[in-house]
Amino acid sequence: MSDLIPAINISADQWTIADAEKVYGVSNWGGGYFKIGANGNVHVIPDQQQSSMKIDFSSVIKEIREENIQFPVVIRFHDILRSQVMNLNESFNSVIEEANYKGTYKGVYPIKVNQMREVVEEIVDAGAPYDFGLEAGSKPELLAVLAYNTNENALTILNGYKDEEFIRLALLGRKLGRKVVVVIEKYSELLMLVKISKELNIEPIVGIRSKMRAKGQGRWQGSSGDKAKFGLTVAEVIKSARYLEAQGMGHTLKLLHFHIGSQLPDIRAIKDAVNESARIYAELHKMGFKLEYVDVGGGLGIDYDGSQSTNDSSRNYSVREYVADVVYGLREMCDLENVPHPHIVSESGRALTAHHSCVITEVVGEIKPEGASISTELIEGEHILLSNMRALLVGMDDNINLQETFNDASQWKEQAAEAFKLRVIGLEELAKIETLYWQILRDVQTRSAEKTFTPEYTNVLDSTLSSQYLCNFSVFQSAVDSWAIGQLLPVVPLTGLDTPPVKNCSLVDITCDSDGKIDQFVIDHATSSVLPMPAVSEDEKCYLGLFLTGAYQDVMGDMHNLFGRLNEVHIFSHDDDPEDFYIEEIIKGTTVEEVLSIMQYHPRSMALDMKRLIDKQVANGKIRPREGVKWTDFYEDCLSGYTYLNTD
Ligand SMILES: *Cc1c(COP(=O)(O)O)cnc(C)c1O
């Protein structure tokens, strides 16, 4: 995709919601859950079975304000989570039926994608009718999964590197009657598992992860191939099976697992991997190992940029197509090889959770490229560079060559900076030249907009003249993949989309880090460095939604600059409610005190120290007693407050 900044030249009386839809592409990435309403506000349709139910983001914002919850806020739509769990399970079940496939679908949710208890509970609850299970990849996750996946018919899949405690915990799960599968990532884990299960006399369910030839594209393609971090080579797979057999445990080998990477953009990689795994499964079967499950891992992608393409932030297939490729791929190979159809396990995390949460942040300031302007009146004996710049501005008329004017102004501005360094012009003259430069650029922009064709320099000009909107959030806490791996996340103004955008901006966060910014958007099907913004009146606040943050972003953020976790609002749809929703739960974000404690500070004793210091100034007569008490209280209030800007 190019870095084109799309010119939006639609007048207010011709602007329609369809135009807004085209600019922001909400329906393209919204998965049917988000759309722009007729009133120009973004709406949520949380339950696709009941499309008449619509939640207006402006009502949500209003209620959050009435509850005195400070922004930024994470909004969780539990209905979306439930819908996604249902969609995935129903897709597998219906394709399995249609294909006359003999195995069943037994999916699991890998909790690393979002370990929030409320998220895991909701997924377990919505998945109960399908015996949907959980996956853990570490000891802490395993402890959580053991306590929360209590359905004896659901699978518990254990991936990741393991120690003895990990294996003992897994066997505890077996004792509780659960279907806990220990997936061997490394040959030595198998020896440990056999030893401990014999010692405890508990029969394990063994899975093996196979390193695949089939490579996924995209950012996680290193998850397969010879250099993959996890999994066994085919030689190790055979060695493992034979070792189990020799130990009288051949029958405990029940599952074959692969995972070729997250966010797979191209469906071909999925077909390849399914095919490869089915061959391995069939061969093992013919060797006498009657495996029951093939686990196709994660990788089911999300179309973040709405392009339905093989872009890194997109996918060129639907959930239904993914499911069909898995089911038909396995069926075809098994029928050819004359082995039974295995039960199918998948570990989709991103696809289940991405849509269910978003971040609402408020714009708290605008950083204009020109900053302020100063008087540029002519002064006797001024430098020729300054006079030239003024002449350029004064001389602008309808017949002027705008490209040339733009070039001249840019060149003279650079010369002025050099001249200042060489002590040829003074600070005041430099400031005047810069003021004139920005006035010329604005004038060129206005005049270009009136032209019927779009001149070449317009893109550069729009980008140069765009403002940075300062938003009350931290990229490192709330959108870490946009910083770490250039992941595109949809950003949309939540209201006012019934009028055409009036200016372009990029977004910067409140951390003291130049990387704390978002300057990659998908606008009108192209990547753009700026986001078109509708007009906002002085007395209104402007709220932006950062969407599809439910997978990974919600839980991988860090405390850069000591900005902590966000306030959270959990929303349930409710047909009888006039606004179609109610706030089910509010979870307070991290307080200043809490983030300081994590960094080994002692906030309570800091408060006492501060009180002592203030009291000393009171005793010295530097602060009046009444004032002293106020300062002490103020310090304590800030300690127990929210880490983000207080804009009330
Ligand atoms: C991360 C991971 C997943 C989840 O992948 P998604 O692409 O988010 O669905 C599944 N399985 C394993 C082994 C993983 O490491």
UniProtKB/TrEMBL annotation:
Pfam families xref list: Arg_decarb_HB, Arg_decarbox_C, Orn_Arg_deC_N
Broadest EC class assigned to this enzyme: lyase
Keyword Membrane carried by entry: no
InterPro entries: Ala_racemase/Decarboxylase_C, Arg_decarb_HB, Arg_decarbox_C, Arg_decrbxlase, De-COase2_CS, De-COase2_N, De-COase2_pyr-phos_BS, Orn/DAP/Arg_de-COase
Source organism superkingdom: Bacteria
Cofactor: Mg(2+); pyridoxal 5'-phosphate
PROSITE patterns linked to this entry: ODR_DC_2_1, ODR_DC_2_2
Stretches assigned to the Arginine decarboxylase C-terminal helical domain: 592-645
Residue span, Orn/DAP/Arg decarboxylase 2 N-terminal domain: 104-354
Domain Arginine decarboxylase helical bundle: 382-455
This protein's UniProt keywords: Decarboxylase, Lyase, Magnesium, Metal-binding, Polyamine biosynthesis, Pyridoxal phosphate, Spermidine biosynthesis
Record-listed E.C. numbers: 4.1.1.19
GO molecular function: arginine decarboxylase activity
Family to which this protein belongs: Belongs to the Orn/Lys/Arg decarboxylase class-II family. SpeA subfamily.
Role summary: Catalyzes the biosynthesis of agmatine from arginine.
Protein name: Arginine decarboxylase
Species in which this protein is naturally found: Glaciecola petra
Gene: speA
